[in-house]
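Hi V.,

Quick status before I head out on leave. The structure for the redesign project is tokenized and pasted below; the design run finished overnight.
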């Protein structure tokens, strides 16, 4: 069965209905009255003051938003001092509004932060150095904890010197005399210059402390446990009218959306029950009777809203969506001030809006 094209309201009917609606609120006598003559609405004709008509469309739907307190089990986490210093912990004095919240929806709670001794080092911050076994000293690599033999006296502690002796005829002989070695002072051994004869030096692996920093707590001796829990958002529930227009509505979009939401039964449009298949030119053009690039844009925008709502459990789009024909009347006052009057709906049921 072929679709029945919806018929837009007649521009003369739109103009007449708007005049009756706006006669007091917008002081039509001020803009269209003739000095010295009795003011009559019938004299303000569409033929004289409506300069053009533009066809357009709007997609209208309600987007409901509801946030409930999440019942999710807390996650237990552990960290060392550096981890904790880098983190942000939260303590809520009141329930935040989810739409205003900019952080993660699950955060670490300050009240759950607990300090405990590191089990690996038992709170000492360090473990016994494996190189010195906690003694703080290691064997000197130069002497290997052994006295060094004096090379000058070959470890004897002495050596012989020869003294020249001459007789009266100048005949030369030598006399040997034993003396102490002046390198080792007669001991036959030399003191190691690195360890001073101790045979051991300070352990560099632990800086002579006997301990190495604990890899678990990084030397602080403490670890921390905490819980990550859902942010306690304030319970919110609202239904927001969404109006997507193929033309600019003189800044009346929000006002029109709320008005249509209240008087939806008084406006006739095309029902979009299956957005995935019906928000395209093949469906819209034969039902609406016309189509434009701008109508295509708002159709895609509406489809995107529905797609995003499926990803967000807090948002729901009320079905069906509505596609309303729109006529925009380009109008002018007696003094030449330009404004627009809009008709939303079919010739059977339509609403009019517009401000001078």
């Amino acid at each position: 069965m072929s679709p029945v094209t919806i018929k837009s309201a007649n521009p003369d009917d739109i103009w007449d209905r708007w005049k009756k609606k706006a006669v007091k609120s917008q002081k039509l006598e001020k803009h269209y009255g003739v000095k010295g003559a009795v003011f009559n609405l019938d004299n303000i004709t569409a033929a004289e003051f409506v300069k053009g008509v533009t066809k357009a469309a709007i997609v209208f739907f309600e987007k409901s938003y509801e946030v409930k307190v999440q019942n999710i089990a807390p996650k237990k986490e552990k960290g060392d001092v550096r981890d904790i210093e880098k983190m942000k912990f939260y303590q809520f004095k009141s329930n935040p509004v989810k739409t205003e919240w900019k952080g993660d929806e699950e955060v670490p709670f300050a009240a759950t932060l607990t300090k405990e001794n590191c089990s690996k080092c038992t709170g000492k911050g360090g473990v016994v150095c494996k190189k010195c076994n906690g003694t703080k000293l290691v064997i000197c690599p130069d002497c290997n904890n052994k006295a060094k033999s004096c090379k000058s006296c070959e470890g004897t502690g002495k050596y012989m010197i020869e003294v020249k002796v001459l007789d009266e005829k100048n005949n030369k002989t030598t006399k040997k005399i034993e003396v102490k070695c002046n390198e080792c002072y007669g001991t036959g051994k030399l003191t190691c210059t690195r360890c001073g004869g101790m045979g051991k030096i300070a352990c560099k692996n632990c800086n002579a402390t006997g301990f190495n920093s604990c890899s678990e707590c990084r030397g602080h001796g403490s670890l921390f446990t905490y819980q990550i829990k859902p942010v306690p958002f304030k319970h919110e529930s609202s239904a927001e009218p969404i109006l997507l227009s193929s033309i600019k509505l003189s800044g009346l979009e929000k006002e029109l959306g709320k008005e249509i939401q209240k008087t939806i039964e008084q406006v006739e449009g095309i029902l979009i029950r299956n957005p995935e298949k019906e928000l395209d030119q093949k469906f819209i053009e034969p039902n609406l009777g016309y189509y434009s690039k701008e109508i295509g844009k708002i159709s895609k925008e509406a489809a995107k809203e529905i797609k995003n709502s499926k990803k967000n459990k807090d948002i729901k789009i009320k079905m069906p969506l509505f596609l309303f024909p729109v006529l925009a009347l380009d109008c002018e006052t007696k003094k030449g001030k330009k404004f627009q009057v809009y008709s939303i709906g079919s010739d059977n049921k339509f609403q009019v809006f517009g401000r001078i």
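Above is the designed sequence. Helices lie at 11-22, 28-32, 46-49, 81-86, 253-262, 275-278, 281-288, 293-311.

G. will cover questions while I'm gone.

Best,
W.
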